[in-house]
Amino acid sequence: MIKTLFLMRHADALPTERGKKDIDRKLSIEGIIEAKKNIKKIFTREEKLNYILVSTAKRTLMTQACFDQNIPIKVLPELYLAGVSTLLEMVNAIPPSVDTACVIAHNPGLSQFVHYFTGQMIEMPTASIVKIVFDYDDWNCVVAGRGVIII
């Protein structure tokens, strides 16, 4: 069975407001439009998600809200500004019954994670989505250098 992982960087966010924290930044209007457009372009009837992992940052939660609300989500504080090892730990913990998952998080971690899986350096601008497939039955088996970028 093939496992499909989508990595999505949050959409364009507003600057940090005075006295607020980075984690509280909201999406800009342009970011909401950009996220909806990219999600609609990638996720068609043939490309269905089973599961979404999302950071606790306001901008990632707002990006996730642009998806079909019937998709199970898991909000993980560990994904906020996560590096490769944390991202791998979260992906390895996806239930084996899930065939297609999406992680909505932040750069530079996501770009580094793509490189970890595929050996390819890809810049991930806001609201970008990368699809990686793995020829495994269990997310726990997903390791470095074993993914293939599709988009």
Structure description:
- The mean pLDDT is 92.
- Helix 2 (58-64) links the parallel strand 2 (51-55) and strand 3 (73-76).
- This protein has helices at 29-42, 58-64, 84-92, 109-118, and strands at residues 3-9, 51-55, 73-76, 100-105, 129-134, 148-149.
- With 151 residues, it is α/β, with parallel strands linked by helices.
- A 6-stranded mixed β-sheet has the order 3-2-4-1-5-6, with helices on both faces.
- The protein contains 4 helices and 6 strands.
- It is globular, with a radius of gyration of 14 Å.
- The protein has one domain (3-12, 22-149): Phosphoglycerate mutase-like (Rossmann fold), CATH 3.40.50.1240.
From the spread of the alpha carbons, the general shape counts as globular
Task: Please compute the radius of gyration using only Cα atoms.
Answer: 14 Å
Our estimate of the beta-strand percent is 15-25%
Number of helices: 4
**CATH topology description:** Rossmann fold
The biggest sheet amounts to: 6 strands, mixed
CATH superfamily: Phosphoglycerate mutase-like
End-to-end Cα distance: 20 Å
CATH architecture tag: 3-Layer(aba) Sandwich
Secondary structure class reads alpha/beta
Q: Which H/E pattern describes the elements? A: EHEHEHEHEE
How much helix is in the residues? Answer: 25-40%
Strand adjacency order, main sheet: 3-2-4-1-5-6
For the record, the CATH class is: Alpha Beta
Uncertain segments are none
Q: Give the number of domains.
A: 1
Features:
6-stranded mixed sheet; 4 helices; 151 residues; globular; Rossmann fold; alpha/beta
Give me the secondary-structure topology.
Elements: E1 3-9, H1 29-42, E2 51-55, H2 58-64, E3 73-76, H3 84-92, E4 100-105, H4 109-118, E5 129-134, E6 148-149
Parallel strand pairs: 1-4, 2-3, 2-4
Antiparallel strand pairs: 1-5, 5-6
